[in-house]
Design brief:
By secondary structure, the protein is of the alpha/beta class. The chain has three domains: 283 residues, Spore Coat Polysaccharide Biosynthesis Protein SpsA, Chain A; 72 residues, no CATH class; 105 residues, Jelly Rolls. Helix content is 24%, strand content 32%. It has twelve helices and 30 strands. The strands form seven sheets. It has a six-stranded antiparallel sheet with strand order 20-21-22-29-24-27, with no helix packed on it. A five-stranded mixed beta barrel has the order 6-9-7-8-12, surrounded by four helices. Helix 3 crosses helix 6, helix 3 crosses helix 7 and helix 3 crosses helix 9. The protein is globular, with a radius of gyration of 25 Å. Pfam families: ManC_GMP_beta-helix (PF22640), MannoseP_isomer (PF01050), NTP_transferase (PF00483). This is mannose-1-phosphate guanylyltransferase. It comes from Candidatus Nitrosacidococcus tergens. One of its GO terms (molecular function) is mannose-1-phosphate guanylyltransferase (GTP) activity. Pathway: Nucleotide-sugar biosynthesis; GDP-alpha-D-mannose biosynthesis; GDP-alpha-D-mannose from alpha-D-mannose 1-phosphate (GTP route): step 1/1.
Length: 483
């Protein structure tokens, strides 16, 4: 049977703030290696046999970012499904399974979060091959990781008797039960008994079996997802599920919606299994796990950017914009971005989510986005701002354009730094080259285009009584943002 990758890309990665943010989460970042995490997730399975192009489920706000990252690695998703809101992994998978079965006969679903690191690709492929064999025999398959320390940030899977005999293959066990994230004492017990694996969040099963079991155990999820798919619309490269129906869907995970309920069945032929994934896996759930998953220097440090270290050990230092000097640090995480500096001891790294929750409560912009904000046409970056002005650097991709728009509360000055700009201002059209500029009064319809073959870079100076991004009235847009 064909292997259908299902990539779940709905997470926000709050514990990797300030690099990971709501509008640019960790799966879209290059944290380990040259590719982003979602790109690596797909590339590591491309060489397997009988693999279909992936189905990706992501938040609607990330659609252009995900599509661009797929274009960069020459991958055309079979379907890019947009969630209007996050409802956990079981609804996301149900949307994908319904979409797959609507287009083809039954197949094996390989369900993978988009934000994990796997270093040993050969061992990973062996586990997937074994999982494929078991899934074809109708076994729902989970993938667990042998714990290396008493981790309280992961869920666990209790294993039963082994069901594999070939020593060359990875080991598969009957799946006994799922365990919630434990306290440290319980995690230590799990480690010592050697009967528990970390729950990786990866699964395999036939698409038809998932739909059958979600119908049996959590029918409200299937009902809501079916309505959301039936009332959804294809929008170019994206499939938009209907928001009202999907918002009524219960929020539940794959393991608790279906998998753990299968362990209660008394059936000698149909039972869930778990494969021990020994492939250098990490979910990179917090800064210390990124440190552990990366290649470090002789002192155990991971340094990226313009960094100077002295008497520093087992620390992570990231610098995006400025030089950072660290002296006498141990087990410390320092992350510098254009608008935030985070300093945290590794023992308190899980508490980063508390800061993010506080920022969200106070409606701080630093929770949502970086100063560099990506758009389908390119990106803009805030350089300076005050009470009645803002300065941005704008980069427009070749043959791309911003929407035809108007502002009620601000005027704009555009200065071309490099490339060629085609400027529409009401009924006027002008071509501007390097060092030329134009002025857009408030209330005037306007559009910025790049008709050239090289990126267009401009400096935009905004002035007015209100400078928020919601002061945009769009009349036409190539990317469907007038809806």
């Amino acid at each position: 049977m064909y292997l259908q990758p299902i990539i779940l890309s709905g997470g926000s990665g709050t514990r990797l703030w300030p690099l990971s943010r709501e509008h640019f989460p960790k799966q879209l970042l290059s944290l380990v290696g040259e590719h982003t995490m979602i790109q690596d997730t797909i590339l590591r399975i491309c060489s397997l046999e009988n693999v279909l192009s992936p189905v990706i489920v992501c938040n609607k706000e990330h659609r252009f970012l995900v599509a661009e990252q797929m274009r960069q690695i020459d991958i055309t998703p079979q379907q890019l499904i947009l969630e209007p809101s996050g409802r956990n992994t079981a609804p996301a998978l149900t949307l994908a399974a319904l979409s797959v079965l609507d287009k083809r006969e039954d197949c094996i679903l390989l369900v993978m979060p988009a934000d994990h690191v796997i270093r040993d690709i050969e061992s990973f492929h062996q586990c997937i091959t074994l999982g494929h064999q078991l899934a074809e025999k109708n076994h729902p398959v989970a993938f667990g990781v042998a714990p290396t320390h008493p981790e309280s940030g992961y869920g666990y899977i209790e294993v039963g008797e082994s069901i594999t005999e070939n020593a060359i293959l990875p080991t598969a066990f009957k799946l006994q039960s799922f365990k919630e994230k434990p306290d440290r004492q319980t995690a230590q017990f799990y480690l010592e008994t050697k009967r528990y694996l970390w729950n990786s969040g990866m699964f395999m099963f036939k698409a038809s079996i998932w739909i059958e079991k979600i119908s049996t155990y959590t029918p409200k999820v299937l009902q809501a997802c079916t309505q959301a798919i039936d009332k959804g619309t294809q929008d170019g490269d994206f499939f938009r599920v209907e928001s009202v129906a999907f918002s009524s869907c219960p929020s539940d995970s794959i393991d608790y919606a279906v998998m753990e309920k299968l362990t209660d069945q008394e059936d000698s032929t149909f039972f869930p299994v778990v494969i021990s994934l020994e492939a250098g896996w990490s979910d990179v759930g917090a800064w210390p796990s990124l440190l552990e998953a990366s290649t470090r220097d002789e002192q155990g440090n991971l340094a990226k950017g313009d960094i100077y270290l002295d008497s520093t050990q087992n620390s992570l230092i990231f610098a995006e914009n400025r030089m950072v000097a660290a002296i006498g640090l141990k087990d410390t995480m320092v992350v510098e971005t254009s608008d935030v500096v985070l300093v945290v001891h590794k023992d308190y790294a899980q508490n980063v989510k508390n800061i993010v929750a506080q920022l969200k409560k106070e409606n701080r912009e630093e929770y949502i986005s970086h100063r560099k904000v990506y758009r389908p046409w390119g990106y803009y970056e805030s350089i300076d701002f005050g009470s009645r002005f803002q300065v941005k650097r704008i980069m427009v991709n070749p043959n791309a354009s911003l929407s035809l728009q108007m502002h009620h509360h601000r005027a704009e000055h555009w200065i071309v730094v490099s490339g060629t700009a085609r400027v529409i201002r009401d009924n006027e059209v002008a071509l501007l080259s390097e060092n030329q500029s134009t002025y857009i009064p408030l209330g005037i319809k306007h559009r910025l285009e790049n008709p050239g073959k090289v990126p267009l870079e401009i400096i935009e100076v905004q002035s007015g009584s209100y400078l928020g991004e919601d002061d945009i009235v769009r009349f036409e847009d190539h990317y469907g943002r007038t809806k």
